[in-house]
Design a protein that fits this description.
By secondary structure, this protein is an alpha/beta fold. It is built from 14 helices and 13 strands. Helix 3 (about 145-155) runs parallel beside helix 4, helix 7 crosses helix 12 and helix 10 crosses helix 13 (about 385-405).
């Protein structure tokens, strides 16, 4: 199978400028200025887009506030960046309380009632958005709820359809729901001109899981918010003080907390360290399991489970930490890792899935086997050996994140994908040209 090429560097225009509310407050509305409407918009590493595009953005989750996190915040940020770059974006989404409101920087909003059954939601979103199809250049879908738009496109009807953020091997609670969801996703991907992925590894996973040609799957990466780039690195600990390690993510084996708790006593035997684990867990089970494991391995005296923190509190934890560790076994991008790099933290990550490509080979951090406590503890100890080497890793990581993982960089790649989709043949016809292969 052809390899997906690595991301190309894209120039960034800096911070995203999103206004933020504090925890427990009504989300602060962004301070808005009219979106520019340039005649030509630069594409990443290619010819410019001839005119601003009319984009119908169909999504099932949306969050106006940084605390929303995940896919919800991703769509908000991407839509806002596309609008700021001159495109006309119309949102179609389920109505969810205070989120169902007009958004001044969008070209329009259409909300539909919530439906627990995804099949009903798919048709509700389509009925709400079909009146907007005339004059639309691109339909941007998220999740299997876009299946009706994709099937319409499969019949050869414009506009172009781009689908994103797919997890072909996602696990659901019941076999029936999992099977139906995977079928919806495959139908949506099969009917789309292009499918967007968040890493080269994710692109290969999507292609293999869906049966799509690799040329129909595009790696556009994900982005880090501006405030992470403005954080100040913590000074080295004073003599006698411990190094502060940090892990951020859903608490459990999936993110590698068990691996870190088994490695931590080996580290603590040679250096004074503390570990702060930021993140919640479904029903508290993951937190209970990891707390029990910490007691069994002897890591408990060195660990603090901080739970799920508001956005600003997370930023403070990143400024306090000396080393970020993510021995995760399952990531399609590794947002927490990219955020730590943007914050100027040296990192130790698992040699698994997409994490090596996020860290890169520029000296931004170290990789280790999450299932080998000696290997993981050795990487952590090596990172803690020299304050100067750690500072250099943090500087290189921030430079890499600023080059690849800003919202303008991601929006430029999405624009390039839109342009290719608009010129793509019908999904049943010949596929797009295969991307260039890379060695290794």
């Amino acid at each position: 199978m052809a390899r997906v090429p690595p991301l190309a560097p894209v120039a960034s225009s800096g911070a995203d400028g999103i206004a933020r509310g504090g925890p427990g407050q009504e989300p602060a509305r962004p301070r808005l200025t009219p979106a520019p409407r340039p005649a030509r918009i630069a594409r990443s590493m290619g010819a410019p887009v001839a005119k601003p595009l009319r984009i119908l953005y169909v999504v099932r989750t949306l969050g106006w506030h940084p605390d929303a996190g995940g896919d919800a915040l991703y769509h908000y940020r991407l839509m806002k960046t596309l609008a700021r770059r001159g495109h006309r974006v119309h949102l179609v989404a389920p109505a969810r309380g205070p989120l169902a409101k007009p958004v001044p920087w969008l070209d329009g909003t259409t909300y539909v009632p919530e439906h627990e059954r995804k099949s009903r939601l798919a048709f509700a979103l389509y009925r709400a958005g079909r009146r907007r199809l005339a004059g639309t250049d691109v339909v941007h879908l998220h999740g299997g709820e876009g299946v009706v738009f994709a099937m319409r496109r499969r019949l050869g009807r414009r506009p172009a359809v781009v689908a994103g953020n797919y997890q072909p091997n996602i696990e659901r609670r019941s076999f029936l729901r999992e099977s139906l969801w995977r079928r919806f996703q495959r139908w949506t991907m099969a009917g789309s001109d292009l499918v967007l992925a968040t890493s080269a590894w994710h692109a290969r996973e999507v292609a293999e899981g869906s049966g799509l040609p690799p040329a129909r799957v595009r790696d556009v990466s994900a982005a880090v918010d501006g405030p992470f780039f403005r954080l100040r690195a913590a000074p080295p600990p004073a003599p006698g003080e411990p190094h502060r390690l940090l892990i951020v993510g859903h608490v459990g084996e999936r993110k590698g907390h068990d691996a870190l708790l088994r490695a931590l006593p080996l580290v603590a035997a040679k250096r004074a360290v503390t570990l702060t684990a930021v993140g919640g867990s479904a029903g508290g089970h993951g937190l209970e399991d990891m707390s029990r494991l910490a007691a069994e391995t002897g890591a408990a005296p060195h660990v603090r489970f901080a739970g799920r923190l508001p956005y600003r509190a997370l930023l403070r934890e990143l400024e306090r930490a000396h080393l970020f560790v993510l021995p995760s076994r399952a990531e399609s991008f590794g947002m927490a890792l990219a955020e730590a790099m943007a914050a100027g933290l040296p990192v130790v990550a698992a040699r698994r899935k997409c994490l090596p490509e996020v860290v890169g080979d520029e000296g931004c951090g170290l990789l280790a086997d999450p299932d080998d406590p000696k290997d993981l503890s050795g990487a952590i100890l090596k990172a803690l050996e020299s304050d100067a080497a750690r500072a250099d890793m943090g500087r290189r990581g921030r430079e890499r994140a600023r080059r690849l993982y800003t919202w303008d960089a991601v929006a430029a790649r999405v624009e390039a994908a839109y342009a290719d989709a608009m010129g793509a043949p019908r999904p049943g016809a010949a596929p797009l040209p295969a991307p260039a292969t890379t060695a290794g």
